[in-house]
Fold each of these.
Amino acid sequence: MAALELSDAHVARLRIWMWLAFCGVLILGLALVPWLSRNISFWFYLMLWMSMASAFNIISGFAGYLPFGYVAFYGIGAYVTAVLVRKLDWPVGLAIPLAGMAGVLLSLIFAKTLKLSGIYFAIVSLALGIICQILISNMPEEITGGSYGINLGGSPEPVHSFYAMLAVLAATLATSTWVARSRLGTALKAIRDDGEAADALGVDVPRVRLYAWMLAALFPSLCGAVEAWYTNVVDSTTAFDTLITAKTVIYATMGGLGTVSGPVVGAAILVGIDDLIWQHFPVANLFLLGLVVVLLIQFMPRGVVGTLLRRKPQLRRYLM
Amino acid sequence: MSTLLILQGFAYGVIVGAVYALLGCSLNVLYGVLRVVNFAHGEFIIAGTFVSYVLFNALHLHPLAALPIAAVSFFAAGWCLYYLLVPRLRTADDPELSSFLMMYGISLMAAATMLGLFGADARNISYTFQPIAVRLGPVFLPTARLVALALSIIIGGALAWFFYRTLPGKALRAAIMNPEAIQIVGVDINRLSALAFGLAAGLAGATGVLVGLVFPAFTPFSGPDYTLIGFIVIVLGGLGHPVGALLGGVLFGLAEQMSTVFMPQALSPIVGFALLIGVIFLKPSGLMGRVQLR
Amino acid sequence: MLVVDGLCKSFGGLVAVDGLDFRVERGTILGMIGINGAGKTTVMNCLNGIYRSDAGRVSFEGVDITHWTPHAVARAGIGRTFQVPRIFRRMTLIENLLVPMLKSGESDRALTERAEHFLARVKLQVLRHNFAEELSGGQQKLLELARVMMFEPKLILLDEPFAGVNPALCKLFIDEIEALLASGTTFVLVSHDLTSIYRLSDHIVVLNQGRKIAEGTVDAIKRDPVVVEAYLGA
């Protein structure tokens, strides 16, 4: 069938170079957006969702967990940034990395829940996300601004936060690519498919899944931090909205969990559709989003890339 | 801090807990038989409350008369919804998580529909019972809440009778214990599953009417609150364990209501969550359930 | 090589394994037989740490490995296969074989070559880029064997290796076991199928209701009235 036979090693190299080239073009194209487009906001959120979905893929697509309280990391990142900038007068450039660290710290606090699996983990995670929201909105107003939230003050230049988001996206893609190709990724996939068997073959399951969990927590925290800088305001209702988790899950699933390119593709497709819906049917927005989810699960549970790989086995060696 | 307040909190806890128990029970029927965790359950319930609201406002129908109407119509809707949504899921990689996500989509659609029909304002059913409250020993309890408690107990009893004394009920229990085996012994799992889905939806509709009696207000966006409470209740009691859900519901109701006696209102949800986390770490399978850990 | 001493495990009120002792000599095959529910798989799970035994000791090459976690047991050199094949279904065959080697210092390329070598031995090399879920049941069993061979364990626990495997694949399986045996690997072979056990084992332990009811060479077990009674009903 194949016209020319490439050795496995060649194919593997071709595969990674094709993917890196795609990422390079994507990042470069996005870097030009501030000059080419007046609608920075659309592109900013596109990058944010690509990043969120790719990071989510590390814990969900590779390791097989469905953290339905994923927004907790996003929210904590936003709040840490806001508090550091507004209350302690820290420069944003320092606050954002610290927000990332705060997310990782939170993931360590939640690490014990990784012992749970499947739907149990999903429900407990959802509850933890909501606990975070309640705790933050009930903290003293001098710190988190109560239910009104925090205004970061100053007059930020959206282009700056745009490039910060681009950097976060690049870092997420690099990490997710590295995980997929590394032994960590193989271990994670083994845990996803059968944790007990992986354990019996010498994989240190608790340690490996903790690494994935921490990585998956870092990037949403950074996203939340940069978004807080971009919008200049943080409040507990929007920063901890379950819809953020849901969109992340939906975008990643749309593309295909467990593939590196899937979450990027899925986010691109659905953020585009979402934008169209908002422009033309703002009232029906939620309804249509729900409909997309139902249709997706019914007809393409493995997502665009996942389905393609299943139908066309010969592509498996070429697509990341 | 008076004993009176504590007694009052306890009584409210039992009442609210009974409603939560029903909520958890219907979720568990669904999970037990179908392995579907219904993220849209809260919306089902609020839809039931809206049915009662509309019947009362348009036709001046007593909420108690709305209850069977909601239950029966939701049963039929659930039955249809099953055939529309669930059979295809079985082919997914992880049917449980897929169904969880899909039902989230349904919950968005349901909430958006109710928003379109009723707007975002908070509503309440302005029916008042005569007398408005009943004195029980030292505490006064609103009649509406007592009626809701009585109804929950009646529905719970009817459920128990159904599960333990009727053939379809026994088949459902068998399906909860071993979904594979029941197909081998000649039960049509599709019809049984549709029955379970219908039953869960019907129960949710009835629970919604009770919610209208017990809680002061509701909006199209109240659904997720009840979904979350339902999740906590079933995790507390043990996934897929109908009796565990009763226990979990009452426990959660008590914890929530008692905490309002001792803590600021806004923080009281924390107590329920703390209970959840405590149970998860001490006995991860829930109070009565069994679950695989990894 | 492996010494099990007074192993006990119960679930709730049910005693699955009750004071079991046995030892396995280097380079031999220990067969473990017993009717369904005799506790065979439970013993396996206790040996490799999936279950935590309630009492008793397990030592391997003189090291006490009681209560070690499964991955520690694996790294000590004990591999196993499962009664129902537990492959990593959404990973390619090569990736499946890499899993036990993730901690090794060898390069990815060397490991991949080794994986291909072992896949060739169980006649699966053509399918090396397929997902494991696309294999037949018998092929999945062979994949499990290749996977456990990958890290060259000193002791391999085989749980019902021949159940549901067609005769041709079964022969391939037995050939591989004999080849490994010749190179010095030790086995514990669990089965309720007497023919294969009698053929392969050097020494046999018979379990009934979690207890050892007989032990000895193949010939001795074949003639033991206690075993016959346990199998044919009492």
Amino acid sequence: MSEYSAIVLAAGEGTRLRPLTQNRPKPMLPAATKPILEHVFDQLIDAGISKFVVVVGYRCDRVQSYFGSTYRNVPITYVTQKKQLGTGHAVLAAESEVDDTCLVINGDQIVDSRIVADTIARHDSAAAATIALLQRPNVEPYGGVRIGEDDVATEIVENPRDGYGYYLNAGVYMLEPAAFDAVRSAEPSFGEHHLFEGLSKLIDSGETVRGTVSEGLWVDATYPWDLLDVSFELFDRGVVTSSPVISGRETTVHDEAIIRDPIILDQDCAIGPDAVVGPYVCLGENTTVGANAVLERSVVDDDTTIGANATVVDCVTGTGVEIGPGSTIPGGPGDVRVGDTVYEDEALGAVLADRVTDRGGVTYVPGALVGPETEIQSGATIRGTLAGGTEVRS
Amino acid sequence: MCGIIGYAGAQADRPVLEVLSNGLSRLEYRGYDSAGIAVAPEMSVYKRKGDLDVLEEQLPDAPVGALAGIGHTRWSTHGPPSDENAHPHTDCEDGVAVVHNGIIENYRELRDDLEAAGHEFDSETDTEVVPHLIEAALEQGADADSAFRQAIGRLEGSYAVAAVFRGREEVYATRRQSPLVLGVDDGCALLASDVPAFLEYTDEVVYLEDGQFATIRPSGIEVRDQRGALVDVSVETVDWDPEDAGKSGYDHYMRKEIYEQPRALRECLRGRPQPFEEAISIEELEELPRPTEVQFVACGTSYHASLYATRLFREHGVRATAFLASEYDIETVPVDEGTLVVGVTQSGETADTLRALRTANGVGARTLAVTNVVGSSAARETDHTMYIRAGPEIGVAATKTFVSQQVALAMLSSALTGDCSREFVESLRALPDQIQSILDGSRAEEIAEEYVHADAYFFIGRGYATPVALEGALKMKEITYRHAEGFAAGELKHGPLALVTERTPVFALVTGDSNTERMLGNVKEVEARGAPVVAVTDDPGLIEAHAEHVLRVPETHWRFFPILANVQLQLLAYWVAHRLGRSIDKPRNLAKSVTVE
């Protein structure tokens, strides 16, 4: 058991996950039936971390009211980063709460405890920092690190274009005080302090930054539909186990309902007669699935109601969503528009943000993205991206 | 109304002073005008008027070599806050020190007797008779244990008492009608007025019954009955998470508890609404028959929840009345075998409510406690108990427990009468997320900012919303120290309208039920007097033209509108108090759980 504290970065919104992040930061979005951050905490505890210092900012109430002052007996200290001025800035905000050597981890990506434990084991104070690395075919969307002899890092970059030869930066670091100093003294770029820039500076100044290549689960959701794959991977890797019916205390599954594994149900769910639920379905707390509804390959967040005879496939919902009776989300593939970019043929039925209400008989063209609090009258057809708070008539 | 703590354990494990002062900080909500600590076997007493920080400055930094100790945080009932009146109290020779929660009714006679026998008193408290009674018994040759028992035998009234003796490494304690719970752990033992005081050290507890005596030693606890026979006690494990005693990064417990409401409500609802059977089932009340009449007894915020519940019961066809517990008088209230007397008390220790419940028990009425605290006096002394499951609440101003009380009582009214509908069940299950949506988007902070310097705040509602108008005003009074009143809107024109000016904002609870038209009439009355109107509503269309501001809540079953509207009023009071720099979690002169009548 290590006695290290972990600085967990949970202040950023995760703007590419809009509209799901309207009311909460990315670390609080669901992976299976728990927030991503809760999985991060679980893995950290498995790796022996004994204290969490959580940097919060965007919609911090959501993090604080969910976890409180301890998680599984590990004390949590909150540090508020009022403006999200980069990961380096966030780490500096938490500096006074940790001892000399500490772990730093992103709170919005699920990382295997093995990767964390490997990083702790590889680190010694001869290095100013140790970075967890993974061998992945596509590093470009993330951070990349090159290493040389004795695993010493030679280059740290974001979004390496010439992906060749880079390891993926898993977002897990062991840092010595010298690393904090380097982050502090690094020139901000566009007003933001980034951790990778501070570490680059360390390398430039001749300090040792080590990379340690590890393996294990590492999942990240960049876009809303990625939440489906993140949850499904948790099933496939056995991180969440499918044990329907008994999994949530007080959950009611009608005798005539059909359950197809894998599925996971949280507490107070209710599944009506002749509903067909699964495979690959995650039902958050207090969700209701009406009679004869069909639900497949979907992540349904807390307090959502799926009406009788509705069909819901490849769907991500926020909290308090109401899918009306007889509504149809037939599933992907579909083209999804985010800003000016169109992502073609994504396996997405629909993303319905918090408290979208449809009155029934609504058809969703694959790839639909509906903003929070939108009300859809019965019989409407929804396609493309809808802003929040709108009213859609049929 | 006070809090007590006791500890016996080896210094090497945990410094006695540290355990006691940590415990007192967890009990501060029970009172905080003075505090003190006494430790043995070498008797030292530290006590001060003021809050715990003042006492802590006086405590020695070095270990004191103590093995046993007692502590007390006080809320004055006899004698003003002062160093002398702070507990622990000692006898003439400082051979015994005592802390006490409750009221000793015959202290005047006892004190006269003791003074006649030459005992000298330092304080004006009722408690000080106890150490002198013990001293008198010791002088007669009694040992510590029997001296303690003899002294307690002389007392009339309510008490939880703990004592330490010079030269002894244990704490003696007993209770009658005031709460006292014991904690056990390897190599130490604890006692306190309630569990959170020592939850960081142990979750294994024993609830002491009325009239039992306990001795706690580093080696464990010993419980005996009134005649001195050993009692075989059952040790229970408390499943509260000690996290709940922390502020989790919030400035105030009140704010934390407001934001915890969706979660608290989920716990309250857990397993109770039956979505496919259109029924409410309350497991712990399955044996409770349908009453012909319901009488609620409660105080403060719990009384407002009770008022709300009476309307629900009446609508379900059962006669129901809410009484202020301190005014509940069985000579004037008829009770028969069909009457159910429901005590609504967050802590389960509210003295006025307990007295009313005991009165009801005494005349043979069936009694039910609706409470948040498992094992509390109300839970143990009534025929039935329903838990609201809100989790510990530390802020003195009740927030999440009020919302849980409202919802618990709404479920109770349906479960006992069998009157339910699909809409009722679905609307209940929607409440946690609807409250979350209010928390996500409330404009209460900016509205509070605008009216922070108002002369007074008025809250009006009709029907189901009236109790929440009263509660909104109570919350505002409690934490801002500003004048606030709640009225049934129809009553305005019968008097209170004379108070309304352009410097008194009126908060109107307006919902889309049959009262809306009349409510609009009331709003126009205050509008005509120039008062700014802030509407709390689920249907702004009707009221917008007459209101300066609108605080929106989601549409719900009209019976539940006040549950949602209340959240906006909590936030409003919080932000006004915040702007005024008030002591939000510990308002002046108030304590969380009022254990005196």
